Every structure is written in C-alpha cells, then in structure tokens.
Amino acid sequence: MSSRPDLRLNWCGYQAAEYAVRHWHYSQSMPTPPRVQVGVWEDDAFVGVVVFSRGAVQNIGRPFGLAQTAVAELTRVALRRHRTPVSRILRVAVQLLQRRCPGLALLVSFADPGHDHVGGIYQASNWFYLGRQAETVEFVAPDGKQWHGRMVSKTGMKKVYGVYRKVLRTDQCTPVERCGKHRYIMPLDAAMRDKVSSLSKPYPIHSLPIEVQL
C-alpha cells in the first residue's frame, strides 16, 4: 500500500484555478465572481482546486432565512489523479473558507445527474441532502459550453448580482432541457445545523465508488 501523501491546501490565483477547472472538471469553465479558490497539493505537486462562489442561484440564502453574504456555494471540485480522499480535501478547504469568511453560516452545492453525479463526495463528507430540483432549461453556446438560464437573455445584457453585465443572447444558443440536480447543504455552526437538520432526506443511491465522483 502506498504511503499517505503530504497534503497541503492554500489559496491560489485565478490562473492556476482556471487551469485545473479547464483540464479536470467537466464544465471546463470558472464560476461567476465573487469567488475564492483553494489550491490542493500532494507532496508539493499541484493536483487541483476547490472553488467557492455565489453560484448561479440569486437569493440562495432566502430559503434558510439567511442574507446572501451568509451563504456560499461549492461550485467546483477540479482534481487530477490524487491519493487523498476527496472528503478530507473538502473538510480542509471548508476550514480555510471559514477562517477567511467568518460570517458564513451555510454552504450549498449541487450534483448533476446529467453527468452521472449523485453527490458521493458530499455523502462521504456528511452534508445534508435536500432532494432533487425541478427540471430546468440550460443553453449551449456555439463553443459547446453550457450556461444557466440566468446567464442568457434576449438582449445580451442582464442584471447579475445587482450589476448589469454582458451575457449571451438566446439566439446565439441552443436550449436544452436538463434533469433536476441533487442539492446538498453543509451548516457551518451549531445553530444553523439545528435549524436545517429537519430538512435532511435519505441520500440517493450511487453506483460508483463514493470517493471518485467529482
């Protein structure tokens, strides 16, 4: 059996994070800012990144009675071949995030069954499962990238997190129906854990080893 690798996590820059996401994540795209990027090293070799951001869902904290600034979304886990369990990597990344952003009370993440993901890494990390979302329509751009409907408009301009910005036009994209994603949450303090524990549902069944679903 191989020895346990020397694991190190620390903040990393955009260039390193983008490289990891483009090469080792199925989306091949960075999430919309604001975001923070946690680099992952094993035996001093860069093996990937964990990215937290606001995600695509505006007012993400509303169902939990939280302000937008009290919730973050785990939006990317982009890792090349590695030996450390993903659950351990996530645990350390969340600890770093809490130190940097002490006002956070809750993390949210989604697993896309359209890519054969059911959230095995969240199950291994004891996140709460809230069930499947409703079916949605996403848009495929000419370069093949997929975009949430909130990042596409008829005019090519849209208000994103309170600021108007340029987005893709609907006539530039192909609409595609997507099955609802699995939603998971991780409370970051005892009060929030007590508040949301009653929402937890049984985990969906996964057919792949729980630690390899990225």
Which features characterize this protein?
seven-stranded mixed beta sheet; Aminopeptidase; disordered C terminus; 214 residues; 2 domains; alpha+beta
Describe the protein in words.
- The structure is a single chain.
- The protein is an alpha+beta fold and 214 residues long.
- It folds into two domains: 7-133 and 180-199, Gcn5-related N-acetyltransferase (GNAT) (Aminopeptidase, 3-Layer(aba) Sandwich), CATH 3.40.630.30; 136-178, no CATH class.
- It is built from four helices and 14 strands.
- The chain has helices at residues 14-24, 86-100, 120-124, 190-196, and strands at 7-11, 35-42, 45-53, 71-79, 106-111, 128-132, 136-140, 146-147, 152-153, 157-160, 163-166, 168-169, 174-178, 182-187.
- It has a seven-stranded mixed sheet, sandwiched between helices.
- β4 (71-79), α2 (86-100) and β5 form a beta-alpha-beta unit.
- The chain is globular, with a radius of gyration of 17 Å.
- Mean pLDDT is 88; it is low at 207-214.
CATH class of the largest domain: Alpha Beta
| Largest beta-sheet details | 7 strands, mixed
Give the number of domains. 2
CATH topology of the largest domain: Aminopeptidase
CATH superfamily of the largest domain, by name, is Gcn5-related N-acetyltransferase (GNAT)
Shape: globular
Strand order of the largest sheet: 1-2-3-4-5-14-6
Written as H for each helix and E for each strand, in order along the chain, the element string is: EHEEEHEHEEEEEEEEEH
Binned strand content: 25-35%
Instruction: Tell me the number of strands.
Output: 14
Radius of gyration: 17 Å
The level of helicity is 10-25%
Q: Mean pLDDT, nearest integer?
A: 88
Unreliable stretches (pLDDT < 50, length at least 5) are 207-214
- Label the CATH architecture of the largest domain: 3-Layer(aba) Sandwich
The number of helical runs is 4
User: What is the CA-CA span between the terminal residues?
Assistant: 23 Å
Structural class: alpha+beta
